[in-house]
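Incident log, support desk, overnight shift.

02:14 A customer reports that sequence design results differ from what the structure should imply. Their input is reproduced verbatim below. On-call engineer (initials T.W.) acknowledged and began investigating.
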């Protein structure tokens, strides 16, 4: 039986709500710091994206794990799932230590090369000295996400991310502005709030899993030391998604570095537009995750012939959801932007960027499901190569528009349209003409 729209929605909506709660953190940080100053707003953008660049190693690894978990779930080989998660946690703990040490010794020099403003550099480093400790908690969050999405028990993600979001919003308010007995900490308070929020979320997932999941059924009772053979198998899928996500976010980081050289105001415009853009991408990200999971599950069930019809349904679903969101955004852009700033000149200058990104969102609604189908099949190497080719074009256009020609921010954002058009065309061509139906993982 093919997955219906109702089934797709039942898997997707908890992820959407979870991403909504997750993005409340980004929106809250941007909105609160927008009322502190342009320097803090710009620094939070650069610091936040820099952190996410390294975090993509964790997330990319978890995507590979999720694909394997989904395949084992479809095969009903449940006891093989727990060992994959356990080995993943051990590996990511080691990676977190390595990345924290590298960050401690080299981040200052890297950011000095990237950022032209000394004021923004200093505030960015203040943010990062705390934010990087989130590695140790986010690794648990992404691995539990991989487990629950893979076995299609996604409702718990809603609770976990809401716990994290509520914690972050409350701590942002009292630490950034110095409420109750706490001193006013500005951007440093935002970083500390994020670290504590990720810790609380990780604690929730550990306790919830221990209390509710049948540990014997899923093989969580088979805790052991490093299993190099199993880890090698997991990395055979994950290494490509790790590199793919890192390069993708690294290119996005370069975009903001290029915008920063145009001045604090341009960076503030880009950060506000980015925050809204990422928020609007939530349904797509959820449906892309659903694509990974359902494609891998139905292949595990032996129903390869149903893959393309499933992806077509998800793409159609994605298009109409994103279209509805875009229409609302374009009807009331200034009302949305007023959440970030009281400065009408800044709001008016940000509106054109919102319009350009609205077009990118429409294209992304189709590109996302088809591209993530390739990863769901297990061809993560192909997905990585496709994205690298598109990102090469993307990076060249960033240099030309933002650095060489120094065009306005909204024109620079047009590279997002090119990116998603390239991803859509490449994905459709691969799924139409490549021999992918015999792929095993």
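02:41 Re-run completed on a clean worker. Output:
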């Amino acid at each position: 039986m093919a997955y219906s729209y109702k089934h797709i929605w039942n898997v997707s909506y908890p992820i959407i709500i979870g991403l909504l709660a997750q993005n409340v953190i980004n929106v809250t940080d941007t909105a609160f710091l927008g009322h502190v100053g342009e320097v803090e707003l710009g620094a939070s953008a650069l610091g936040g994206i820099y952190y996410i660049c390294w975090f993509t190693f964790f997330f990319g690894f978890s995507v590979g794990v999720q694909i394997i978990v989904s395949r084992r779930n479809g095969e009903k080989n449940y006891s093989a799932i727990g060992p994959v998660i356990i080995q993943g946690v051990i590996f990511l703990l080691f990676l977190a230590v390595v990345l924290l040490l590298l960050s401690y010794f080299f981040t200052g020099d890297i950011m000095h090369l990237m950022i032209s403003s000394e004021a923004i550099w200093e505030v960015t480093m203040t943010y990062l000295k705390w934010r990087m400790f989130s590695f140790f908690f986010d690794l648990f969050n992404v691995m539990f996400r991989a487990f629950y999405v893979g076995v299609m028990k996604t409702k718990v993600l809603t609770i976990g991310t809401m716990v994290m979001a509520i914690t972050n919003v409350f701590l942002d308010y009292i630490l950034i502005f110095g409420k109750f007995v706490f001193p006013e900490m500005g951007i440093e308070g935002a970083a500390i709030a994020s670290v504590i929020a990720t810790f609380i979320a990780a604690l929730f997932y550990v306790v919830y899993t221990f209390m509710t999941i049948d540990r014997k059924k899923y093989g969580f009772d088979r805790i052991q030391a490093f299993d190099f053979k199993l880890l090698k198998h997991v990395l055979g899928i994950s290494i490509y998604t790790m590199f793919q996500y890192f390069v993708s976010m690294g290119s996005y980081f370069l975009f903001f570095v290029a915008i920063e050289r145009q001045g604090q105001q341009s960076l503030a415009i880009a950060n506000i537009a980015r925050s809204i853009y990422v928020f609007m991408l939530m349904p797509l990200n959820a449906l892309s995750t659903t694509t990974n999971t359902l494609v891998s599950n139905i292949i595990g069930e032996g129903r390869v012939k149903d893959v393309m019809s499933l992806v077509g349904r998800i793409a159609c679903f994605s298009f109409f959801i994103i279209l509805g969101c875009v229409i609302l955004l374009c009807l009331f852009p200034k009302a949305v932007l007023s959440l970030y700033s009281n400065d009408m000149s800044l709001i008016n200058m940000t509106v054109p960027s919102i319009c350009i990104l609205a077009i990118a969102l429409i294209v992304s609604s189709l590109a996302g499901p088809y591209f993530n189908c390739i990863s769901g099949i297990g061809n993560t190497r192909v997905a990585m190569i496709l994205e690298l080719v598109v990102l090469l074009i993307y990076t060249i256009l960033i240099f030309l528009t933002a650095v060489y020609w120094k065009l306005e921010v909204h024109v620079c954002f047009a590279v997002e349209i090119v990116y998603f058009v390239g991803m859509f065309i490449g994905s459709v061509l691969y799924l139409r003409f490549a021999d992918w139906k015999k792929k095993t993982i």
